[in-house]
Each structure stands twice: as C-alpha cells, then as structure tokens.
Amino acid sequence: MIGLADCNNFYVSCERVFNPALKGVPVLVLSNNDGCVISRSPEAKSLGIAMGEPLFKLNAIIKIEGIKVLSSNFALYADIAHRVMNTISSLVPSIEIYSIDEAFINFDGIEREKVIELASQIVSKVLKNVGIPISLGLSYTKTLAKVATTLPKRNPYLKGSFLMDDWDEIDKILERIPVGDVWGIGKRSSAKLVTLGIESALKFKSESSMRVNSLMGVRGVRVWSELRGEKCFGIEENSPDKKEIRTSRTFSRGSSNHERVIEALAKFTAYSAQKLRAQGGVTSKVILFFYSSPFQNSGKVETRSIALPLERPTDNTLQLVKRVSSAALNSLTKGVVYKKVGVILSDIVKKTPLQPLLFDSGGCEKGDKLMHSLDEINAKYGRDSVVVATEGVDKRLTKREYLSPKYSTKWEDIIVVNCR
DNA sequence: TCTGGGGTCCTAGGACCC
DNA sequence: TCTGGGGTCCTAGGACCC
C-alpha cells in the first residue's frame, strides 16, 4: 500500500497555527506581488472564491464578507512543512516528500488492520504536534492514493484518513471523478478526452492501452496503468538532485531601469547558486530570460532568453554573477519595460575535483572557502545577510502588503559586505 | 491599475556523423 | 538524370505537477 499525506489548505493552515483569530473565518493567502489567490480556507472556498483568482476582482467580496487576506510567507511555510514531514517520518519506515505540503508514504508489508490504525495515528499526531490538519489516502499506487486522499477532504466523518483497497468500491469512486482531476491528466488532455466522451476516471480506465497511447502517449499509459492498480511510479526516498535550478520574479510594476534589472538578476543568480552548492552541484550553462510588460507594445509580450555556456562548470556566486551581469548589460534594450526576469542554472552535474585549465590562475579553493562562509553566515543570520554588491540593497520590486510576522524564522538586520 | 514560481519529462525536428 | 540508412545529440516547445 502507498499512502499520500496532503496538508489541508496548507498555507492558510500555517497562518492559523500562529494566529488563532484566523480560525473559523474566511482566509486567503496571496501569490507574490499579492497578485492572485493561492490558498483558501474552507470558509473562503464556500464563498465561491476560486484558486488563482486575481485579488483586484475580489475587493467587494472581501469587504462584504470580512475575508482576512495575507501575503505569502514562504519562509514560514517551509519551516512548518519541515516539521510536518519530520513527524510523519518518525512514524513510518519511509516517505517521499513530493511537494511542500505532500508526502507519499510506504506502507509495504504492514497488514490491513495495522495500516488503518497507523494512518489515523499519523493524522492525529501531525495535528497535535504541528497544528496542521492533513488528509491521508491509501491505495495500491500513487495515482490511486491521490484519488483516495480526496475522500477524507470531502467527508469529515472519515476523520482524515481513508483506505481504498476494494475494487468494486474503487470503480464506484472513479466513476464520480472527472477525468481531468486524475493526477497526470491536465487541461489539454482532459479537454481531448471529454470531447471523445471519456468524461470520468472510470471511463478512462476502461479504455484500451492502445487507444490511450494514441491519445496521450506513454505518459498517459502510465496514468492508465496506475488507475488499474499497476505500479508505474515507485516511492523515491532520496530526492534526486535537481537538473536545473531557477529563480525568477514578476515585478509588481515592471522596470525599464537596467541597473535595477541587473541587480535583480544578480540576486536570483545568488539564490540559485546557493541552492546549487547545497546539493553539491556545479553548472555549466546559465540561461537568462526576460519578459517585457504586456502593457507595452499593445499587449504583446516579448520574451528573450540568452544561454551562457561556461568554460568550466562552477558553483561560485561571484563568477556566476559576473557572467550574468555582463551578459545582461549587453542584452537589455533601452525603453523596454521588463515585467518578469529570471535565471536558470542548467546542465548541473555533481561537483568533483576538476582538471585545472591549462592557463588557469588557480584560486579555486579560495573561492570555495569564501562560498562556504557566505552560506554559513546566510544560514545563521538569514538570507541576504551577506550579498554580492551587484545585487544592490533591499530594493523591493515585488509587493507584499499583507505579510504576517516572522513567527518561526528569524530575519536579522541586513549587513552589507562588498565582495567584489 | 491590479493575474506566482519552480520544477520534470517527453517529443519533434534539426544538425551532424559514419 | 540520378541522390541511403542508421544513429546520436541538442534544443525548443508542450504538457503536466504543486
């Protein structure tokens, strides 16, 4: 058996842990720039507020219903997610952390009665220890476990967990699940399937593998097999290293100031490089991308991306920032308002002692030590405690008007150090 | 006026090789 | 006038996930 533990409206639940005044009332958590809704309390859901709804369309209802609105506070959510995962881990042999608020759980080799008991124990312990309500569904495959998790979410009498192992019952449940709600079937595929009359998960499951293959390719067939109880996706305990690491932001108002854009790119490079070092990797290709504002050029968004191959793979923030900022300096166009920019570290491989270049001046080891200190200081005193001067200092280009206090993570005063 | 961010995998097509 | 077959690698774009 495979379980899926899914935190209920996670971001809202996190805010509620520290602010009891948010309990029992409609609450929304917003995306960056306070742009749109990314988490809703059940009360907000029942007011008909959709996921992804832009904030500016909700002004009236927020006022009338007294909805509490919060900017997202990802440092807080990551910290609480960590506690949730640790609690689950402590009760079971192995888990796979699938996303910030979800984990697959391996229940292999545990008998049915024990599985049910353990599942409800996990639910109550996470609530008691961390204060986060979760739903836990169990079945034969990851895809079926995903389906199973939707039941305790909708039916409070299940008290948070549900074991879905009877095939007659599974089919009855699948019959009521729209095909587009199945994990792995997105908007495009579901539109295609629905026009062919394949509207429910059960109908999809009843198709032939040939038909599914011709409609959706190999990935569709995997989803189809999983719905039939055939495991295609195993539990991966050790998350594999990232193949690319990206950081990007949409600016609340857009910027045509090249200096600001370059500062932002430098910051994104530094964040990405920090993650790269954390996984012990080096990158040999950096990609910059720019989206122009849709409010210029009669709604047409111009996208540009520039790939920068590196002579030698690196994880050094200073080298990367230098490369990125000089490339950006040459590529930004005067007069264009940039709305979104980002950095992708690509072609990542494990860091190994590398052959020195023929005409290398050395100094690599020194750079490693410096990066190590940089990471240590920033881990201890908070992100951005020490930055590369190219990043500039605290010029917020994104908007967060409704931020909750830093309940569980400390964020000390900024120290500026010139690393050039 | 105002609509997020970070990932993975697959496929098709082009360039190139022998 | 006639113009092969098989393979790899890379990239861009599509689709999907939370």
Q: What's a quick, concise take on this entry?
A:
This protein is of the alpha+beta class and 420 residues long. Helix content is 40%, strand content 20%. Strands 5-6-1-7-8 form a 5-stranded mixed beta sheet. Strands 9-12-10-11 form a 4-stranded antiparallel beta sheet, covered by helices on one side.
Could you list some keywords that capture this structure?
alpha+beta, five-stranded mixed β-sheet, about 425 residues, globular, DNA-binding, 12 strands, disordered C terminus
What does this structure look like?
This protein is an alpha+beta fold and 420 residues long. It is built from 13 helices and twelve strands. It has a five-stranded mixed sheet. A four-stranded antiparallel sheet has the order 9-12-10-11, covered by helices on one side. The protein has a three-stranded mixed sheet with strand order 3-2-4. Strand 5 (94-99) and strand 6 (102-106) form a beta hairpin. Helix 4 (74-89) runs antiparallel to helix 5 and helix 11 packs antiparallel against helix 12. The longest helix is centred in the middle third of the chain and has 21 residues, at 258-278. The structure holds a DNA duplex (18 and 18 nucleotides).
The helix-strand sequence is EHEEHHEHEEHEHEHHHHEHEEHEH
Helix % is 25-40%
The 3D shape can be described as globular
Number of helices: 13
State the low-pLDDT regions, or none: 410-420
Radius of gyration: 24 Å
Proportion of strand residues: 15-25%
Task: Identify the strand order in the major beta sheet.
Answer: 5-6-1-7-8
Structural class: alpha+beta
β-strand number: 12
Mean pLDDT: 88
Euclidean distance between termini CA atoms:
55 Å
